[in-house]
Write a structure and sequence with these properties.
Order of helices and strands: EEEHEEHEHHHEHEHEEHHEEH
Structural class: alpha/beta
Strand content: 25-35%
Helix content: 25-40%
Number of helices: 10
Largest sheet: 6 strands, mixed
Number of strands: 12
Length: about 280
C-alpha cells in the first residue's frame, strides 16, 4: 500500500500566481433546467481539490464541463490562462487525464495495453511502442504496485486493480491536471484510501469528487461544495467541514473534531433519522 504524508499548508493553496484552472460564472442547462448555476473558482498548480455535494448536486456535470465532455451553456473554463475550447483536442488531452467512477471496458487488452493508451495523446493509434516507452509503462505500473499484473487481461482485474491501472495510464500520460469523478465509490475501504493516496503522491494538480467526506478531508488542500447546482463553500477543510454546512447541505447531524493521525477535520455522524425524522 502506498503511504504518503498528508499535511495541509497555506502555501499549497496559494493563488498568488496565475491559477492552472479557473472556472468563471459557469452555467449548464438540460431541457431549460439549470443544473449548474454561476460556478466560479480557481485552482493553483499542484493543489489537490475535493469536490463534494449530495447526489444530484451537479458534481459530475461540472467535471464533464472541465474535461470537455459537455459544453457550458454560458461562462468559461480556463486552463493555464486559455479557454479550454481554444485548445486542439489532442493538445488538451496531453494536459488533462481523467479517471472515472466506472472503469471503461477494454476488451481483449492487457494491463500493459491499457496503460499504454496514456501515450496516445503524444503519438497516434498506429504508433509502435518503443523500448523507452515500454520502460515508462513498466515504471508506472511499478509505481502503482501492478507490475506483476502487466500481462493480465484488464477485464479480469478487481475494481481496485482497474483503478490503479488507470492511474498508471495517467502517469504515463504525464498530465498537468488529473480529474477524478468518484473513482472509489465501488471499492473496499482499503482501496478507497490507496487510490487517493496514489493520486496525491503524483505531485500534480488534482480535482476529484468524493462521496466519503472524511477521506476528502484527509486528502485535500481545498474543498468545493455543490448544493442544487450552486457552489456554496470553497476553502480549506477546516473552513468548509462545519456542523452547520453538513446539516444544511447533507441534512445530517454531526460532530467535527481533529483526525488523530493527520491535520484535518474528522466527522462523527449521529444516527436515528428513521425514528426521529430529519429535524
Amino acid at each position: 500500500m502506498v503511504r504518503v504524508s498528508i499535511v495541509h499548508t497555506a502555501a499549497s493553496t496559494s493563488l498568488d500566481s496565475a491559477p492552472i484552472l479557473s472556472v468563471e460564472q459557469l452555467y449548464w442547462h438540460a431541457n431549460e433546467k439549470a443544473i449548474l448555476q454561476d460556478i466560479s473558482f480557481a485552482m493553483a498548480e499542484g493543489e489537490f481539490v475535493g469536490l463534494l455535494g449530495p447526489n444530484g448536486a451537479g458534481k459530475s456535470t461540472l467535471l464533464r464541463c472541465i474535461y470537455r465532455f459537455l459544453s457550458p451553456s454560458s461562462g468559461n473554463v480556463f486552463f493555464q490562462g486559455k479557454n479550454i475550447w481554444q485548445y486542439r483536442q489532442k493538445d488538451y488531452a496531453k494536459a488533462l487525464a481523467v479517471v472515472l467512477q466506472e472503469s471503461p471496458a477494454h476488451f481483449n487488452l492487457s494491463v500493459t495495453d491499457v496503460v499504454g493508451l496514456g501515450l496516445l495523446p503524444k503519438s497516434s493509434v498506429w504508433h509502435r511502442t518503443s523500448k523507452e516507452e515500454i520502460i515508462q509503462i513498466n515504471a508506472a505500473l511499478e509505481q502503482v504496485a501492478m507490475l506483476d499484473k502487466r500481462e493480465q487481461a484488464f477485464e479480469q482485474l478487481s475494481g481496485g486493480e482497474k483503478q490503479r491501472a488507470l492511474i498508471a495510464r495517467a502517469i504515463v500520460q504525464q498530465p498537468k491536471l488529473l480529474v477524478m469523478d468518484e473513482p472509489t465509490s465501488h471499492l473496499d475501504v482499503k482501496y478507497q484510501i490507496q487510490i487517493m493516496e496514489l493520486a496525491k503522491s503524483l505531485g500534480i494538480t488534482v480535482l476529484a469528487s468524493f462521496h466519503d467526506l472524511n477521506l476528502a478531508s484527509a486528502m485535500c488542500d481545498n474543498l468545493l461544495v455543490l448544493d442544487n447546482g450552486q457552489l456554496v463553500e470553497n476553502g480549506a477543510p477546516y473552513k468548509v467541514l462545519t456542523t452547520d454546512m453538513l446539516s444544511s447541505v447533507f441534512d445530517v447531524c454531526t460532530e467535527v473534531n481533529r483526525h488523530p493521525q493527520v491535520d484535518a477535520p474528522h466527522i462523527t455522524y449521529y444516527y436515528g433519522y428513521q425514528e426521529n425524522g430529519h429535524d
